[in-house]
Amino acid sequence: MGLFSRKDPILLAVSGGVDSTVMVHLFKKSGYRFGIAHLNFQLREKDSVADELFVKELATENEVPYFVSVADTLQYAKEHRISIQMAAREIRYTWLEEIRLTNNFHFIATAHHKDDVIETVLLNIFRGTGIHGLHGISSKQGKIVRPLLPFFKKELLEYASKNAISFREDVSNSEPGYDRNKIRLEIIPFIEQTYPVFAQTFSENISKWNDADLLYTSYIKQLKRKMVQVNEDGHFISIPAISRLPGAQTILYELVKDYGFTSDQSADIYKAFGAISGKVFRSSTHQLIKDRNQLIISTLASTTVSTILITETDRHLQLPSANLKIAVHDAVSFAIPNDPSVNCLNYNLLVFPLVLRKWKKGDYFYPLGMKKKKKVSDYLIDRKMPISYKEKLWLLQSGDSIACIIGERIDDRFKVTPGTKKIYVIR
Asked: Measuring CA to CA, which residue among 123, 139, 106 is closest to residue 34?
């Protein structure tokens, strides 16, 4: 099955570089319906402006819809305390998804190619991501498709030259300060001095590793069904059964990570196999007890009813302390009530499933009207809330961000703006 059909309108993420420009040419030549989206990250001063104008002209030439936005990437990275690369990624995909939803595109296409996959896998190897990091970039991930993955960069350059396709050069790709650029500019060329066919061979290995990962994942699923026994008292895993298996420590991690335990905790649990009974380990959601020849896993009492998933179609939720009603309204016809207990959010910025949970130490959000983040605990102190009321509060989490404190205040990042199409109302 292909990544998409001819009936699917596709939103192309276009930077102006050779990769995305060739992608535009191929989509046009093949007769697909598409639009072009360009995000100006404001990281290259005049070059960023020139890129934006180039992509706009490209869209005009191809007579397709054009979408553009300007982002303050440096400020975003500073506010969220993340790298510029991570900030650009978050901004990019959030914006692209909003454009896709509001303009009825079925998929978002990016111009990643084989060289990107090789660089990603090498980065993953250096960072120690394990077997799951060896297959690199998927050709399809949710609504993101990557139709150029079968091609090397040199093939795209040759295609551009043969078809007289003009494009913009990104000078930042030649700066050795970034890890990915070091791999591209220094490590891979060094390897190719000894192994000229490295790129082709490594790419073939990645395909094999992807197959291996699929087999590994299937094997782990079978093991979970076989080795994790469940009853009303908890989940039970036999220590002797694990110990007899090759790669026992790795398998143990795969069995307990679903309960919130980290790789380091898993290593400690494995070391405790020979220890006396009664040793206890805790994740954020579960408790694990080493009891003779078995591991007993149970849900922490404090979290039994503290986490609820909200799907896109949910409209009513029964909480221990309240009933919540959810509605989605057209922004044009809906008047936002002057009532802080009614939370009105930009529907297109939400990532489903949402998570409804109790607040915990370290949680922060950007209170509506504020550009600086604030700890939830500090916000509650400022509101002079009694402890009994604090314990009843729920947070609505979208992706990794807190969208609102239910019945109290929304996060400024999820506020309704003049460009909002749909409003998510929870009361």
From this structure: 106
Region 111-122 average pLDDT? 93
Q: Is the pTM of this model over 0.70?
A: no
- Does 75 reside within a domain? yes
d(CA 296, CA 286): 10
Full domain range(s) for residue 102: 10-198
pLDDT tens digit string along 160-179? 999 999 999 877 676 666 78
Q: Tell me which of 361 and 303 has the higher pLDDT.
A: 361
Q: Of 301, 325, 353, at which residue does a domain stop?
A: 301
Q: What is the b/e burial string over 62-73, where b = at least 16 CB atoms within 10 angstroms of the residue's CB?
A: bebbbbebebeb
Q: Are residues 42 and 88 in the same domain?
A: yes
Let me know whether 39 and 83 are in one domain. Answer: yes
181 and 258 fall within a common domain: no
Shared-domain flag, residues 325 and 266: no
Compute the half-sphere exposure of residue 351: CA atoms within 13 Å on the CB side of its CA.
Answer: 16
**Which residue from 42, 72, 73, 37 is spatially nearest to 55, judged by alpha carbons?**
37
pLDDT at residue 14 is higher than 90: yes
Identify the CA nearest to 297 among candidates 276, 274, 280: 280
